[in-house]
Design a protein that fits this description.
Number of domains: 3
Oligomer: single chain
CATH topology of the largest domain: Peroxisomal Thiolase, Chain A, domain 1
Strand order of the largest sheet: 1-8-7-2-3-5
Radius of gyration: 28 Å
Number of helices: 11
Strand content: 15-25%
Number of strands: 13
Shape: elongated
CATH superfamily of the largest domain: Thiolase/Chalcone synthase
């Protein structure tokens, strides 16, 4: 999450067992299936009643479905709030039985549900098997696309779900998944997005074997990502492009908030792949101070703002000085700067502001995975 990676779901617990000698090769054993559910939730340190959805194996058979659903229902209904009905479904209703890959299909489905915050419906479900008492089990088959709501989350604010998968011969497995983010995280993120009209900037670095190929690569990217504004998608793209471009001799870059026809890339240049370049960060001396210095970086990159605040903490606790942030109002988004807009400040404020912003820049560069050899500043 710190790196901005897209986390679709987090597997927090799993369990497997086998029926042994059962009634037949193909008939499931409800008690053994229930044991895998209990064990998976024990490993995940979760109560099954916290789950809002469970992906059943559910092959659509008259014998197997009631055994599986009733066994699962007894586990999930225990201690469950009557107002928190458990949604159930099976990807097999939508794409058919994937046989050896059926669990992976279910895992992808549930992970995408958690990521998109929508519950995928079971298609063509009309009438429940009379041997399954869904109301008594506090269950309902999901037949409509439904948004995943905050009230479906567990006590700690995370959304919890799980997947059942069973095999011919009596193998049973259950996996618990949950979101990495909480309800409060999404509310906070939405609040920040709504309160700021500034879009984060990304470094798009592209490379190819020849300079003309770089131009074609740029056009292909713009066509593919035109209109995409999701920050996580663009950050992931920028990171992957940066890694890829290092392997090519011809390179170009652009700094922009999105990729579209107006995005201006630099003129392609040829780099010597045989050389071993050294990266040096060079910082200026007095002069570039400004009342809005670092504001946009602080709004977009938590690492930058955390570094600024850590510098201020050291200044106060270790050196016994007054808080520079409180005294000046610099850096922190939403706080009015108390210094002159023309940049003519007392020497102490100029020096501290430059030291703070330069250290924070180094921390930000390091957090982005950029490796440098040296840092040079003003003496």
């Amino acid at each position: 999450m710190h790196d901005g990676d897209a986390i679709y779901s987090v597997i927090t617990g799993s369990a497997i067992n086998a029926n042994g000698k059962g009634k037949s090769l193909t008939m499931p054993e409800g008690d053994m299936q229930a044991e895998t559910i209990k064990e998976a939730y024990r490993v995940a340190c979760r109560d099954p009643a916290e789950a809002f959805y469970v992906e059943l194996h559910a092959t659509g058979t008259k014998v197997g479905d009631p055994i599986e659903t009733n066994a699962a229902g007894k586990v999930f209904s225990k201690g469950r709030d009557v107002n928190k009905t458990l949604r159930v479904g099976s990807v097999k209703a939508n794409i058919g039985h994937a046989e050896g890959c059926s669990f992976l299909a279910s895992l992808v489905k549930v992970s995408m549900m958690l990521h998109q915050k929508e519950i995928v419906p079971n298609i063509r479900f009309q009438k429940a098997n009379p041997k399954i008492d869904f109301p008594a089990l506090k269950m309902q088959v999901q037949t409509e696309l439904e948004a995943i709501k905050p009230e479906m989350a567990a006590r700690d604010g995370k959304w919890v779900t799980s997947v059942s998968s069973y095999g011919v011969g009596g193998s049973n497995a259950h996996v618990v998944l949950e979101t990495a983010e909480t309800v409060s995280d999404l509310i906070k993120s939405a609040s920040v997005t709504a309160s700021s009209d500034k879009k984060p900037l990304h470094l798009f670095s592209i490379g190819s074997l020849t300079e003309p190929a770089v131009g074609r690569w740029k056009d292909a990217l713009v066509q593919a990502y035109d209109g995409i504004t999701d920050d996580l998608t663009l950050r992931s793209l920028a990171r992957d492009l940066g890694r890829q471009s290092r392997a090519y001799a011809a390179r170009s870059f652009a700094v922009a908030s999105t990729l579209d026809a107006s995005t201006k890339f630099s003129k392609p240049v040829l780099s010597n792949s045989n050389a071993s370049p050294k990266l040096c960060l060079v910082f200026s001396g007095q002069g570039p101070q400004h009342i809005f210095m670092g504001r946009q970086l602080a709004e977009v990159y938590p690492v930058f703002l955390d570094s600024i605040r850590e510098n201020d903490r050291i200044l106060v606790e270790k050196y016994g000085q007054e808080s520079m942030l409180e005294r000046t109002g610099l850096f922190v988004p939403g706080v009015e700067c108390k210094l002159a807009a023309n940049g003519v400040w007392p020497v102490q404020e100029v020096v501290l502001s430059l030291v703070f912003v330069q250290i924070a820049m180094v921390d930000l560069v390091r957090s982005l995975g950029i490796k440098y050899d040296s840092v040079i500043g003003h003496r």
